[in-house]
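Subject: SAC domain-containing protein structure
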Amino acid sequence: MEVEDMDEKEVEITEENPSPLVPPSSSSGHFKLFDKMELLEFKDKYIIKALDSSQQGFSISRFDGDIQPLNSGDSLGTPDKTSTIFGVIGTIRLIAGMHLLVITSSKEVGKYLGFPVFHVQSIKYLPCYKALKQLSPKEKKDEAYFRNLLRVVESTPGLYYSYETDITLNLQRRSSLAPGWISRPIWK
């Protein structure tokens, strides 16, 4: 296997002179990533929508975790609680059902290839199930154990993210990827 010496090449990567290895900004495509969103908590669902575009977002059922995009004709009503979030980490299915994990606080800590990198200060998991009463005692015990693990994740420092670039790949790995992959939006 041949290894190329990176010291022989000078590569300057700045915001004014981006690398061809860096995916284009998400704002250049049709899909826009939002760095601040509004979390609306209702008795039957959670709604996550963009602060600057009230019809862009999704709802997730508190009973079964079903995720649906917001429709322009949806009447939202008055939520029980409203808060600002900075991202959706994803969903996780435990024994009783689905949980939605959201970033409730973050801080910009630096730049990677000219793109801002954020440190997650706090996360929150939102239960999306109604089946806890139907679980056996053993399943309830297992569910409590897994929920405690989620609480540990909530309090564990060290989660970083970027809205605009993949921070899991180093420059050497990026250079070996197919050109089509590099041009894909970060959310894909």
